[in-house]
Amino acid sequence: MSAAIRAEDVAIGGGRHLRVNQTGTPGAPALLFLHGSGPGVTAASNWREVIEGLGDTFHCIAPDILGFGDSSYPDPQPKGFKAQAEVRIDALFQLVDALGLEKVVLVGNSMGGMYSLRMAQLRPELIEGIILMGSGGMPGLEPTPELIKLITYFDDPTVEAMADLLIQFVHDKGAFGDTVEKVAAERMPIVRRPWIEAGHRAMFGPEMLSFTPDDLAKIDFPTLVVHGRQDVIVPLECSYYLAEHLPQADLYVINECGHWTQIEQAARFQAIVRTFLGGRDE
């Protein structure tokens, strides 16, 4: 049975807040879900089905990262991916502290995977494990044409362009076309907020957040690296690289799956998360 989502604004420092979606019982093993960077993305659109499914066993926490969705946004906007990451990750740590979480498993999709790795570098005492899904972070990775389409979305910010972008996130476009159309429509009111565009344009630059082999060797936590074989947003080679250099990494490649593992292969993704974390349905 699906767990009900509780959505609330949680106050963090500086008069700001993060919109947080939660399922499950506080005190259960905590999973912190970090979404990706697409225009108009929210935690709910990225993680809804997953946190509903896992809330029977885990305390699932899925915030709109600072500057996304219904959370507060930085003013002024930091310039560049790394500068944005530092401000947003600091806000995530404030959320963890506000919720009284002593240990968390980080579950990061794409940009959220990169943030998960950085969080593990900065406050390793908080981390019980890491699940990366279609994560970036490989040095020198050239953007794919589909990722460039994401980066330049605000040059033509229409609902048609949104649907055309998001359909690239799934492999089986016939089966998931209706889902993509729904997500595209859901994102448009958020896209039209001026600070969303400002944050998006400020984020992408020549200097990305990446991790050397030596960096990864020091992130010594149980790690599950998941990637869709047909992902055209972040190449599969990135997860091969992460799995090679993270000391405790398991690699799971899902065939006939694109960048949105959690949507296109939702049941399978939840099953491998449960297996990785040692949890089973009764």
CATH superfamily: Alpha/Beta hydrolase fold, catalytic domain
Average predicted local confidence, pLDDT: 94
Low-confidence stretches: none
CATH topology-level fold name:
Rossmann fold
Give Rg in angstroms.
17 Å
Shape category: globular
Name the quaternary structure.
single chain
The total number of structural domains is 1
How much helicity do the residues have? 40-55%
Order of helices and strands: EEEHEHEHEHHHHHEHEHH
Summed up, the helix count is 11
Alpha-carbon distance between the termini?
12 Å
Number of strands: 8
Strand content: 15-25%
CATH class category label: Alpha Beta
Reading side by side through the largest sheet, how are the strands ordered?
A: 1-2-4-3-5-6-7-8
The biggest beta sheet is recorded as: 8 strands, mixed
CATH arch. level architecture:
3-Layer(aba) Sandwich
SS-based class:
alpha/beta
Please sum up the structure shown.
Keywords: Hydrolase. The protein has one domain (6-279): 3-Layer(aba) Sandwich (Rossmann fold).
Report what the structure shows.
- There is one protein chain.
- The protein is of the alpha/beta class and 282 residues long.
- It has one domain: Rossmann fold, CATH 3.40.50.
- The protein is built from eleven helices and eight strands.
- Strands 1-2-4-3-5-6-7-8 form an eight-stranded mixed beta sheet, sandwiched between helices.
- A hairpin with a 5-residue loop joins β1 and β2.
- α1 (43-54) packs across α11 (266-277) and α5 (159-166) crosses α6 (173-191).
- It is globular and about 45 Å long.
- The two termini are 12 Å apart.
- The mean pLDDT is 94.
- InterPro entries: AB_hydrolase_1, AB_hydrolase_fold, AB_hydrolase_sf, Epox_hydrolase-like.
